[in-house]
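Morning!

This is the sequence you dropped in the shared folder:
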Amino acid sequence: MIPFLRDNLRWLGAGLLLTFASAFGQTWFISLFAEFIKDRHGLTDGSWGSLYTVATLAAAALMFWKGSLADSVPLSRLAQLAALIFGAAAIGMAWAPSVLALGIVLFALRFCGQGMFSHIAMTAMGRWFEARRGQAVSITNLGHPAGEIVVPLLVVLLIGAVGWQATWLVVAAVLLLVVAPLLAILLSEGRDPVLHAARVERPGLQGRQWRRRDAAGHWLLPALLPVLLTPGFIATVIFFHQAHVAQVKGWTLAEMAPGYTAFGVTTILAAFGAGWAADRFGALRLLPLLVLPMGIGVTLIGPAEGVAGWYVALAVVGITQGMAGSLWGVLFPVLYGTAHLGAIRSLATTIMVISTAIGPGITGLLIDAGVDFPTQCLFLGAWCALMVVLCSVIAARIRPELPHR
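The structure's back. Tokens below.
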């Protein structure tokens, strides 16, 4: 592992920086400012949630349209452009004079943060690494839980010291003055698999290089659609409704906070474990196991009486989150080849972004209808059980079509 890290430090560092900096466009980060934003613009919980959903869906649509740029534009240039837009959006969060402007800013934050930064990182790892792709993807994905563990505390302290608007200006400065220049340096040189040999695009299923339209017309991608939606949907609604869970269970948010540390730790461990296992046994073998931990974890929220049950639930849910980042990063190049990987991944990223947009709305309506979230968790657990069966069927059917590696 040490020689691998040493020899590939610049490329792995670029991927890690992209996923870490994506934190500034993630739901959990923006939610830290929700009360301030609602007060400034006179928004209710419902209008704020609706605006957020519309902005996220718009970001998903643009991701679908422009995600293929990762195949035609040098990643160094694309990453810098995304960082500049990201930084401008952070400035906009402090300045936005109207609800319309706020919606545009939210759209840019979601497109760059949850969308392009993560998309560029995973496309690069899938294209640049082959024999140790799983390890490269798992290392890159560490940026997500690292951000979840480190950033919230720093931001809360910063808000207390300089205020919420000035905090967004600090975020903008980090993106424009630190992240963008570092990405320019780290991504200035590409990498070819296997010791910088001449680049060879590896085929996917049936020995083909799949284009996005071909993948969308094949049975596999529609079959994977509910599996792609599930982790993002469930993780987002758990975070989004934590205050509601606290109210229903009689817990306090302070008591629940250690659960996120447990979530971050298991996410990191699972990412490394899944990356190693994908390289050793093949990513397809992990597919049936992907949503099993999440199903167990979300089911535990329903009957939990003590807050320790919350810690355990989030720790188990974190296993799927860690596995998902590594699994998809390795599996898509295997299934669809590397020639058009950016376009294929943009479709998958769009699906994942949509899942984070629709989750709070659907579960919120159910709460308004009298079905509290802990009760909903039991049904989400049953859904995960169905996904385990579906993944097993998909893996068995697709295995004969994979090229020999």
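Headline: The first helix runs from residue 2 to 7.

More detail when I'm at my desk.
O.
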